Structures are given as structure tokens and as C-alpha cells.
Amino acid sequence: MIRIAAVSYLNTKPWVYAFERTTWPQPVEVNLLTPSELEKSYINDECDIALLPVAALKNLKDYRLITDFCIGADGDVNSVIIVSHKPLNEVSKMYLDYESVTSVALAKLLVTKYFNYNMTFVNAQKGYEKIASTENAAALIIGDRALALRSEFAYVHDLAGEWKNWQHLPFAFACWVCKPHVEEEFINFFNTVLADAVTNLNSFLKQYSHQQFDATTIENYLSHHIQYTFDDKKKQAVKLFLSMI
Predict the structure, then answer these.
(1) Which domain holds residue 52?
(2) Mean pLDDT per 10-residue section of the chain, whose length is 245 residues
(3) The pTM is what?
(4) Are 120 and 229 in the same domain?
(5) Rg for the chain (alpha carbons), in Å?
């Protein structure tokens, strides 16, 4: 049994859709988790292949980077944002998304090194978005909640866009890794499954529906903001990012 762990957000749905329709060469179990849960799952040996937050690579040893794919963006990603009701330089506190790993590290880096703001960071719990709103604090929000809530705030900073402005590079939030025991033959097959899903994205979009987002929102997000190819520029960005956190 090969245990695959992926992110439970809209941006991985094309891959999950493909997983469900693939005839695998051996038994496979797919679990969908938040990024913070994914990191714990991999560390606790609860999965063999994982779409791991790149910030988690900083302290890991038993992993191998695999596949030609990631969850990335070149400019605004739309689903990783810092929001507030006041300009960010007038805010003294930021609530950090409890589901996040990479975006927490990136938010801290951007605020302290790029914006050069003094701010208190608070590890948040569920429901923190409303608390941040009533306190006039900032909030880091990721994933589907970011897509849904961004219009409710006056000020929105897109982390991938700000990274691009700062470092003139795209960004990768998560990449595929595996435990050393996973065989090369399966890794190659897995890479093909991912590639076919990306190639057939338009076909997926025609068939997929979501309870929360309309077809136009989904198409715009997956086709124009998310980038799935883990190219040399994104690998360069990951290396630089890891050296800075």
C-alpha cells in the first residue's frame, strides 16, 4: 500500500480527480489534509508520498524531492493573503493561519524583511478571521478560505505577488516528496498521473463543480493564478526561501 497525502484545497482538485480515476499498479490510499497536518503526517510516517509545504523541508532529512510538479505561482496566487481593514503599516498584530506552514514563514519574512514593519505575530485558532476583523488586526489566510474572504477586507496583500515584487522570482508553496523506500517505478508512474492531470486541466474544469465557488472563479484561479510546473525558477525560489527562514 502506497499512502499518498495531498492538500485538501481547491488547487489540488485536478490531481485528486485524476487519482480517483487512475488504475494504479499497486494499492493506493489517498488522504486529504491541511498543510500543517501534512507536515505532521509525513514526520510521523503516516504517508509515503506527500505534497509537502516547502518550509517543512528545512528540518527534514528522510525525504526525496520527486515529480516535475508543485503548487506554485508567478505573481498573485489569490489564495495566500494578508488582509486587514487598515493599511498594514498601521497594524500592530497579525493572526497567523493555523492550517499553514510555508505561508506563515513567508508572511513573517515579508513583513519583517521586505515591508520592514514591527508586528506581533499570533498563532491563531479556528475563527480567528472574525477576531482579527473586530480588533483591526491583520490576518494571514490561506486556501479556499482566502478565496472566499478576500473581498471582505479593505486591504489585501498577496504573498506570492509580494515575493515576486521583492525577489523577482515565482514561488512554490508545496512540492511532492517521498520516503526513501518508494520505488522509482512507482514514482515515474505517479509523475505521469500528475502530468496528465495538468495537461487535461481544461477537461477537468468542464466537469468539476464546487459548492462554494462558481465555474468562472475556479477557471480563473486554476488556469491563471496557480502554476503546477516545478521549473528551475521555482526551485531557485525554494532554495532562496529556505536559506532566509
Answers:
(1) 2-72+170-244
(2) 97 97 97 96 96 94 92 98 95 96 97 96 93 90 96 96 98 97 97 98 92 93 98 98 97
(3) 0.95
(4) no
(5) 18
